Amino acid sequence: MKQYLIPAALVLLALVSCDRTRNQKGYEYFPDMAHSLAYETYTANTVFANGITDQLPVAGTIPRGIIPFQYPATPEGRLQAGKDLVCPTEPTAANLLKGKELFTRFCNGCHGADGSGKGHLFTSGKFAIQPASLINERMTLAPIGEVYHVITMGFNTMGAHGPQIRPDDRWLISLYVKNELQKKTNQ
Amino acid sequence: MLKHASIRQRIVNLAVPLAVTLILSGVFLSATGDADYMKGKQIFDKNCAVCHKISADKLVGPGLKDVTKRRDKVWLKKFIAASQEMVKSGDKTAKEVFMANGQIPMPDHKFLTDGDLNNVLNYIENFQPEAARKVTVDINKKDGFTNEEIKRGERLFFGLIPFEKGTTLNCASCHATILTDSLNFNPSVLDLAEAWKEQNGTNLYQVLSSPTSQKMTDSHKGLQLADHEIYDMSAYFSEVSKTGMETEKSFPARLLIFLTLGFLMALALADLIFFKKVKYKFIHIIIILGGLGVHVTLAMQEGTRLSRTQDYAPDQPIKFSHKVHAGQNKTDCEYCHSIASSSKSAGIPSPNLCMNCHKVVTQGARSGKFEINKIYRAIETGKSIPWVRIHKLPDHVFFSHEQHVTAGKVKCQQCHGMVENMDIVKQATDLSMGWCVNCHRRTAVQFADNKYYETFKKLHEDYKSGKIKKVTVEQVGGIDCAKCHY
To answer: Does residue B131 come out as left (phi exceeding 0), alpha (psi in the -120 to 50 range) or beta?
Structure first.
């Protein structure tokens, strides 16, 4: 009997917890209330033809509380937005600080912390073309509405960031670009 | 738009006489071999493809279809080498092109030799969108392939039968045939099979003869498949797409230990009461007590693991590496999961968002174009990418990212682990209730100057008098049942 003890102990040590591969979730115990019966945001849906729960608004409708952006993603649209749009927020210290935080999150990668267009993605060689500088003469002269338009609709290679950043936050970023980034370099 | 049209008109006006001159001067008659074409393709893909397409469509710069007909070749060469110098020196056409394309300066390419430039222009001139399809195999065919064909294809894939046109390459050494524990960035055999199936089996030859990325070029060097080899391998792919990939089998070690010890204990008990073969009773007692101890431990461990999915790290439909994106490229977590600060869910980015970068970055260092192409395909077809969810709390508990990320200022890594170091995302914490409660007991809330907690009069008194140094989530009701379960 004794001779079985040692091999048994060794087997126990060697094989503990290798009975589940990374692709297996493991077992559940009475998961009656664990899984939502209602469709959740990202669950597949058999009701809709495209199989998605998270549907887009019906064509021709506007969700409550959302004002559609009316300027097209063209150079003309950009100029028009620059003429028409007025920033709804003030460049207070708190707003600029929040703007800087958002800029760091959404813009730094390409445009760089100083706005020169030498962001990490460019300097590390991932991007073959240099992203636009935000602090050159052309951008300094451009009205704040143009900055807002470019963030919302994108420009050239830059993708539209409208779906990703809420309107208030886009204004905060624009404020930061106009009132801090560009002033810092022009002093 | 008017402005553009007039410029286009002027370009056309310029181009027609130019094209005539070019044709007359016999440029099109010059013999150009395949080698020059491939060289030109390489140079184009490396230097031009980021901004230019060889079609009528504009990317960043203008589409280059028929550019050699529109403009003089000498002028083109000069422009490619140093466009800004030409604009500044007052070249009229250069200036027009510059203005018509949003005044974005084209980078200089002075490092390209005259031969390189000739090759590139030759490539643009003779560009053919798709290499002619040479072999067609109906991979979806109803009557299927014979067993022999499938087996031969499998052996070719594994390198057990050498390819006819002599190369020692074997497919299986790079393309995974079973699900493994680490991330193999090459497309797996199932990936390949699915891709083939989608193309109706027509592009195996084509893909191998014109590789889509540098990585693919390097790894398929010297590979030339004979027609029947393509046929056999298509048979194998067809089979794989039906049966799926072999999955890694788990070994039920804990169950075996449980059963073995149970058997030993029963034996010891039987010997103790009936057979009495072993003299020393302490042996029986050791076995039974030790066995019981192991049984209880295993039962407890397995019991607590029920419904918890710690260490779950499933394969995803795209081999997306957080290590590359969040680690090396230093992308903020909230750049992609942008609604984490304002919503219950952290948000799974849509393929649209991927395109913010992947419009420019069209191939990965390790995966070539295969994985990134899946984004483009998702956008073209409008089908969602079926990402596999890892972190999931049961439906009977409420959790909001907004509350934790914005109000609590909890770092993503605290619950999700160091995701920026993970190629395959793994659930780092057990997400159990005890884990939640422990954190709520330890963590202090921002109590001073916070209107939200104004009504906690007694706590405010104690806080002001210095009786308590911090107010934890627990003290403001953070472990009340109804806080999360309702």
So the answer is: beta
Q: Is B294 on the interface with A (CB under 8 A)?
A: yes
Give the CA dihedral B209, B212, B218, B223, nearest 10 degrees.
-20
Q: Report whether B425 contacts B315 (CB < 8 A).
A: no
Does residue A52 sit in helix, strand or coil? Answer: strand
What is the predicted pLDDT for the residue at B99?
80
The tokens for B96 are 């027009």
| Interface contact B394-A33, CB threshold 8 A | yes
pLDDT in tens, B70-99: 888 888 888 888 888 888 888 888 888 888
What would the pLDDT profile of A101-153 be if each residue is shown by its tens digit?
A: 999 999 999 999 999 999 999 999 888 888 999 998 889 999 999 999 999 99
Q: Is B271 helix (H, G, I), strand (E, B) or coil?
A: helix
The answer to whether A133 and A51 have CB atoms below 8 angstroms apart is no
ipTM score assigned to the predicted complex: 0.87
Scanning chain A, the segments in alpha helix (DSSP H) are: 2-15, 75-84, 93-106, 108-111, 120-123, 137-141, 144-153, 167-176, 182-186
Chain A CB contacts of B2 under 8 Å are none
- Output DSSP code: residue B51: T
| Minimum-distance CB partner of A19 among B251, B312, B396 | B251
CA nearest B340 in A: which residue? A164
A5 at interface of B, judged by CB pairs closer than 8 A: yes
Find the angle CA(B453)-CA(B457)-CA(B460) to the nearest 5 degrees. Answer: 75
pLDDT 10s digits, B203-261? 565 666 667 777 777 777 777 777 778 888 888 888 888 888 777 777 888 889 999 99
**Do B291 and B265 meet the contact criterion of CB atoms below 8 Å apart?**
yes
- The span from the CA of B20 to the CA of A17, in Å, is 76
Report d(CA B230, CA B203) in Å as an integer: 10
